[in-house]
Write a structure and sequence with these properties.
By secondary structure, the protein is an alpha+beta fold. The protein has helices at residues 10-39, 46-51, 70-79, 81-89; strands at residues 55-61, 64-68. The longest helix is centred in the first third of the chain and has 30 residues, at 10-39. It is elongated. The mean pLDDT is 90.
Amino acid sequence: MQRVEGSTNNFHNRLLDWQEEGTHIQKLLRDYNWEYRKKICSKCPVSKQKELNCLKIDNFKEDIQETYCKKMTKARSKKFKKIILRYMDFHPSREL
């Protein structure tokens, strides 16, 4: 992304920084999801998967199936709460 010089373009530069940080956070969350699936979901019994309304997608990585459930979402949100809130507070429009 190209930076623009000048005080009138500070908002644009902050927006570019915010977008880059968002991309970094998305990768961090995706990586966490796969590690969670490897450690937790792969050991989760079918009865528990049904209870959690586990969604399974035909996408595999290292023989681990892509899944989504309430338990994983809650664990991820709890682990990355500060990062997510800080990212939301960093939005350029909050400084106007």
